[in-house]
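Can you give me the bound-state structure? Components:
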Amino acid sequence: VQVVQSGAEVKKPGSSVKVSCKASGGSFSSYSFNWVRQAPGQGLEWVGGIIPGFGTTNYAPNFQGSVTITADKSSNTAYMELSSLTSEDTALYFCALGSTFDHWGQGTPVTVSS
Amino acid sequence: QTVVTQEPSFSVSPGGTVTLTCGLSSGSVSISYYPSWYQQTPGQAPRTLIYSTNIRSSGVPDRFSGSILGNKAALTITGAQADDESDYYCMLSMGSGNHVFGGGTKLTVL
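Here's the bound-state model for the whole set.
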């Protein structure tokens, strides 16, 4: 199993960014794709997750309304879109596959700067 | 809001044993929270060590073990090695697909 995320992003405040996470090496429609944020020098924070096969999504309270998680079952890919970006969204975003977070992506750095 | 607590830092001697804990600001941690543990070195993706309280992830050596100790989840490392020096995070599953990480423990091996 491999989990590969999209590359680094640099965005202006107020804009949006969409990060992708593609799983390969199996069938993952019933797996959860989870997103985890790590701000510079800080710990891990669960953002939210989706189970593509069921279409169900869950969000941490801190991210409700500012994050949208979607998935494309056919390509085993999940997406996380962050809107109305501020400097506080500058972080490394990880994707983790499965309810037990078995497999992690390499992380996508998102920098928000004017 | 649920707060998951961990020791900010811990130190262990090479070859020694250390137990890191994971608690709740209000209430007790039980197997119903499916506690899991992750190891992370700076700049790298986390590595899953333990899930569902005490199940080792594939390839994790048996010197890492998970348990419930009193009202907390625990990660015990026996025979600590230099490359165990990392940040360790616990995560609790709060139901309905929601999860919360602890603040992490920085483990020093010296």
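A couple of observations. The CA atoms of residues 36 and 51 of chain B lie 4 Å apart. The mean pLDDT of chain B is 96.
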